[in-house]
């Protein structure tokens, strides 16, 4: 699938790969923290949403005009934010919060399926 179809720039130059470096570092941190069983809950939560925040910042760095003109990019940002909220809520031990977290994990999947299917809202 080309990046143009989801509303992102057609070509990624070396500068864009440099902007994605924080995302790759965040994924490594999440992997390391996830393997530590004695890590505090807040550290696990932060390491879990850090890659999603990095992706949001990467998209936001393209500018307000880029985002406002492309509905698919707006849906992608919304899906990333719902996913981050769901990840944090799933770590809680409260049953009601867990159910809200599950819903927040399903909402981004729905938005992403609309995003990649080409369905227009």
How would you portray this structure in words?
The protein is mainly α. Helix content is 74%, strand content 0%. The two termini are 21 Å apart. It has helices spanning 14-19, 21-35, 41-60, 64-68, 71-90, 95-117. The model has no long low-confidence stretch (mean pLDDT 75). The longest helix is centred in the C-terminal third of the chain and has 23 residues, at 95-117.
Strand tally is: 0
The class by helix and strand makeup works out as mainly alpha
- Name the shape in a single word: flat
Strand content: under 5%
Q: Distance between termini? A: 21 Å
Low-pLDDT regions:
none
Number of helices: 6
The helix content is: over 70%
Largest sheet features: none
List the secondary-structure elements in sequence, H or E: HHHHHH
Mean pLDDT: 75
Radius of gyration: 16 Å
Keywords:
74% helix; 0% strand; mainly alpha; 121 residues
Write the layout of secondary structure elements.
Blueprint: H1 14-19, H2 21-35, H3 41-60, H4 64-68, H5 71-90, H6 95-117
Quick rundown:
By secondary structure, the chain is mainly α. It is 74% helix and 0% strand. Helix 3 packs antiparallel against helix 5 (71-90).
């Amino acid at each position: 699938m080309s990046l143009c179809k989801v509303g992102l720039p057609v070509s990624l130059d070396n500068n864009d790969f440099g902007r994605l470096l924080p995302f790759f570092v965040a994924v490594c941190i999440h992997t390391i923290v996830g393997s530590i069983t004695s890590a505090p809950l807040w550290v696990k939560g932060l390491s879990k949403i850090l890659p999603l925040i990095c992706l949001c910042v990467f998209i936001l760095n393209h500018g307000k005009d880029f985002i406002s003109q492309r509905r698919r990019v707006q849906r992608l940002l919304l899906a990333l934010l719902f996913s981050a909220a769901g990840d944090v809520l799933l770590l809680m031990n409260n049953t009601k919060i867990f159910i809200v977290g599950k819903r927040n994990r399903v909402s981004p999947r729905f938005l992403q399926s609309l995003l990649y299917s080409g369905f227009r809202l």
